[in-house]
Write a structure and sequence with these properties.
Blueprint (H helix, E strand, L loop, with lengths): L13 H26 L1 H12 L3 H29 L1 H20 L4 H29 L3 H33 L3 H4 L1 H15 L13 H24 L4 H23 L13 H31 L4 H6 L2 H21 L1 H19 L8 H27 L8 H36 L4 H27 L6
Length: 474
């Protein structure tokens, strides 16, 4: 446990308070980059694939390589932050993220790009939990922390939505490489500002890192996603699919055994006695599954089916992003009025309704008639869900485990995204294949597949709402 925590480098009083909120804005900017990078690439995929010779299956791995490395290493990143200092690990992760973003933009082969994406994810795994831990140290008071976490959760949702918009603008105007290069100047601002605003926190107690646990959980995640991807390519009962699925189960069990027997586990299983933390992470996993699949499908649907160019596709996400921003700003007040639990359940129900509405969009959809309405409803649901789920996930966490809590909630979102894209993407592909085999044309068949994906995302949101019911009332 840390002997001291990060703080604002300014005299006490109004100036200190202002600098604390300024520090939050810089931390939120870094978090925005991390979340943004999981979605900004979506719009660039068709152009990127054409230039680097990547088919649809390979393009999905441009997203998956990032999410897998991010989600698989987040727990280790949170522990490293608790052990070596949150500010130090945050700066190392940010510097790595900037460097690997530049490498991705410079890629001239698919192999180089996928490697850079995996390294980006690994860097984000250091940055994200350390940033959330710094937030909890800077805002120890419950009321201020609720407001700060409202900003934080809103940024996470905004990053997911804004990625599609910004990706379209950048791809259309500057080429696909710019969706990676944009991280460099923004990351540089973060690297300069944070040392000026936040003091260095002392490292925690040193001991043996749980590297076997980190390796096992990462391998389990890769095996699980590999098995889900194999279903689409070779079938459910193919030996490769069964071997990968069995490997994921065995590795998952091995991770639990390792954590129980290790003196300093990557994830102390006792932390899940905190019911709100447990429920919050389950809900975040489900939200991540629904959202990553949604934005991937929207990008392909609008460009491949409706014939929109990259810029138009990005601009169509403005209503969703705008609704999300407005709602995220209002959520802390709503939480104070009816509580976190009720706010989250309501947000998830609204999100599910918007996804069901979107599933009715036809292959010749008109934006104002078929897409605008559900986009706004989805934005409202997302804005409420991201803010309240983040709040729930760090409820009652002690300062010495703040890095762990930050790692857990981010891990849940990224693992959910990887699994959601694999599962719901496979469902959509199989449905599309069945429709084409029955003689239905390509665009209509693709739309039918995505309709099932949107319905699946809605069902996932409903399950998340049911899970929220088990949280303590607050």
């Amino acid at each position: 446990m840390s002997t001291s925590t990060a703080s604002i480098s300014a005299p006490a009083g109004t100036t200190r308070s202002r600098r604390r909120w300024l520090a939050l804005s810089i931390l939120a900017l870094a978090q925005f980059l991390v979340v943004l990078d999981a979605s900004i690439v979506n719009i660039a995929l068709p152009v990127l694939g054409a230039q680097l010779g990547m088919d649809t299956a390979a393009l999905a791995w441009v997203i998956t390589a990032y999410v897998l490395a991010f989600g698989g290493l987040l727990l280790l990143g949170g522990r490293l932050a608790d052990r070596y200092g949150h500010r130090r690990v945050f700066l190392i992760g940010t510097a790595g993220f900037v460097a690997t973003s530049a490498l991705a933009g410079l890629s001239f082969t698919s192999e180089m790009l996928l490697t850079a994406r995996a390294l980006q994810g690994a860097s984000a795994a250091l940055l994200a939990p350390a940033a959330l831990a710094l937030l909890t140290h800077l805002f120890p008071e419950t009321r201020d922390r609720t407001k700060a976490l409202g900003v934080w959760g809103g940024v996470a949702g905004i990053g997911s939505a804004a990625g599609v918009l910004l990706g379209g603008v950048l791809t259309a105007s500057l080429g696909w490489q710019s969706v990676f290069f944009v991280n460099v100047p923004i990351g540089a601002i973060v690297l300069i500002a944070i040392p000026l605003l936040i003091t260095r926190d002392a490292p925690g107690a040193r001991g043996k890192l749980d590297l076997p646990g980190a390796a096992t959980i990462t391998a389990a995640l890769v095996s699980a996603v590999g098995a889900l991807s194999a279903i689409e390519r070779v079938g459910l009962i193919h030996p490769l699919t069964l071997a990968l699925a069995a490997g994921a189960v065995v590795l998952g069990i091995a991770f639990v055994v390792i954590e129980r027997r290790t003196a300093e586990p990557l994830v102390p299983l006792d932390v899940f006695r905190n019911r709100n933390l447990t429920v919050g992470n389950i809900v975040m996993l489900l939200i991540g599954a629904a959202m990553v699949a949604l934005f991937f499908a929207l990008s392909v649907y609008m460009q491949s089916v409706l014939g929109y160019d990259a810029l138009t596709t990005g601009l169509t996400q403005l209503p969703l992003a705008g609704a999300l921003v407005i709602v995220a700003g209002l959520v802390p007040a709503v939480i104070g009025w009816i509580g976190t639990k009720s706010t989250l359940i309501g947000s998830l129900v609204v999100l599910a309704a918007g996804l069901v509405w979107l599933s009715f969009a036809p292959s010749d959809a008109q934006f104002l008639v078929h897409i605008l309405g559900p986009s706004i409803v989805i934005g409202v649901g997302m804005g409420g869900a991201f803010v309240t789920t983040t709040q729930l996930s760090v409820d009652g966490v002690e300062g010495g485990e703040s890095g762990l809590a930050g790692g857990l909630v981010n891990t849940s979102q990224q693992i959910g995204g990887a699994l959601g894209l694999a599962i719901l993407g496979t469902v959509a592909a199989l449905r599309t294949g069945d429709l084409m085999a029955s003689g239905i044309s390509g665009p209509e068949a693709t739309t039918g597949g995505f309709s099932w994906l949107f319905i699946g995302s809605a069902l996932v949101s409903v399950v998340a709402a049911i899970a929220t019911g088990f949280a303590r009332k607050n």
